[in-house]
Amino acid sequence: MNTVVKLANLETKMFFRDRLSVFWTFLFPVVMIWLFGSMFSGDMAGPFTFAEVFIPSWIGVNIVTTSFFTLGTVLAGYRETGVLRRYQSTPLQPWKILAAHTMQGTVIFIISALLLMIFGMVMYDLQPPMYIGSTLLALFISILAFFPFALFVTSLAKNTQSAAAISSLFLNLMLFLSGATFPLEMMPTILQYVAKVLPLYYVIQLLRGTWNEAPISEFGFEVGILLAIAVVSIVLASRYFKWSDK
Amino acid sequence: MEVLGLNPEKQLRELNRRIGVQFQATSIQKKMKVKEALDLFSSFYKGKTQKDQLIDMLGLGEKLNVHFEDLSGGWKQRVTLALATLHQPELLFLDEPSMGLDPHARREMWGMIRTLRDNGSTIVVTTHYMEEAEKLCDRVAMIYSGELKALNNPDALLDDVATHYIGFESERMSYEYLLTLSDVVRVEKDEADFKVFSEDLQHTAYQIFTYCHEENIELKNFKFDRGSLDDLFVQYLEKEKTG
């Protein structure tokens, strides 16, 4: 266990040494919220304020960014440059590497979520989640669904560039079509159906719901879908995980 | 197949505790500091590692706080060599350890490899530099197109085959004539420089001298010499071609 913590700690440190990833993970969502805030905040349709709708959504988006970029693309890079292969010639067990990276991803996600929440509270009078236990559980389930999903999808890539390309595709698709950034009601019916195929849609429903309306027990359908995604992607990720691209 | 008495398929983890590998083109995380890498890899092995001795031996002290991506090729090789040897492996595999090193750094690398050998590790080095194999290795295996062509200590390898040659310079010497001599295996000609590989150097020398005396051909820098593993490798290649 010592090694897992040590590796997770190191990976977290190295994440902060890369200014670009720090910007995209921590500052970009805040900047986006601020931009959208200056566009939408006055005229929100429905009973909720701008922050109540969009802060939980961007926290959901950050699960996607963390799983695809902090975890998936980085590990694809490690596969390409032989970092994983070097581990393979030591007694370090494979699960410890994945555990360490999952731990690092979770830490980074938590920091980004707190940052968004604090920004919302300071700028837009956002209230903390109404059912905090439910929100935390929702986050946990979402991570469980997305981390292995991203690990699987990026492990199909041949190298870092294609892993980054796949990740950007998924991120952008979900950004615009899951209701995270643009209200789905604004979109044509067909796109509303597409949204419901994307896993982020359910994450966002769950986060917005437990933040503003009801405990997680009211969202059995969303929880079920995410758990199913979690099971399938854990199986796929462990079945197809490769240590080197040769 | 067994390595150190272990089955590599079934007992890989146990085996990994006892071997060290330095891959040719792999790196560690770009933003990892040298000391962090040493520390992390030390934690993979039970018991105390020879981290501090290695830092001394490889002179890594001044680079401990440098990120891996900021190191030059030679320093990167040293760091990965250190990572492969932290746990004093019984068996150490080095894949082209001196690739991309300047001549000075290469000699230093050889010195380190010798020290590791003297400390009791068995070291398997793959290399394209025959000179490296000749100077560094106690035993050399020549592998060509997947087949083991020769295996012995370098001296014996060189003695075994006709890598002994006569070298001289001559403007008018006939290449074709040299090939007709009975003991001659191979003749290399580079402008006026000749290398005559022969099974019986003395006899061939006698024939050459007689011929040159009769034909009034001038010879310069005449010497007996011994080829290198390089020559030996080329010889195997040519045998292959001629069947």
Entry keywords:
heterodimer, A: 246 residues, mainly alpha, 78% helix, B: 243 residues, alpha/beta, Rossmann fold, Alpha-Beta Plaits, 2 domains, four-stranded antiparallel beta sheet, 10 helices
Please sum up the structure shown.
The complex is a heterodimer of chains A (246) and B (243). With 246 residues, chain A is mostly helical. Chain A is 78% helix and 0% strand.
Could you walk me through the main structural features you see in this protein, from its secondary elements to its overall organization?
The complex is a heterodimer of chains A (246) and B (243). Chain A is built from ten helices and no strands. Chain A has helices spanning 2-17, 19-40, 50-81, 83-88, 94-124, 132-155, 160-177, 189-195, 199-212, 220-240. The mean pLDDT of chain A is 89. Chain B is α/β, with parallel strands linked by helices and 243 residues long. Chain B has two domains: 18-137, 3-Layer(aba) Sandwich (Rossmann fold), CATH 3.40.50.300; 158-242, 2-Layer Sandwich (Alpha-Beta Plaits), CATH 3.30.70. Helices cover 42% and strands 21% of the residues of chain B. In chain B, the strands form three sheets. In chain B, strands 7-8-6-9 form a four-stranded antiparallel beta sheet. Chain B has a three-stranded parallel beta sheet with strand order 1-2-3. In chain B, a hairpin with a 2-residue loop joins strand 4 and strand 5. The two termini of chain B are 32 Å apart. The model of chain B has no long low-confidence stretch (mean pLDDT 86). The A-B interface holds A 2-3, 6-7, 10-11, 13-14, 17-18, 78, 81-83, 85-86, 89-93 and B 13-14, 16-17, 19-21, 23, 25-29, 31-32, 36, 39-41, 43-45, 67, 80, 83-84.
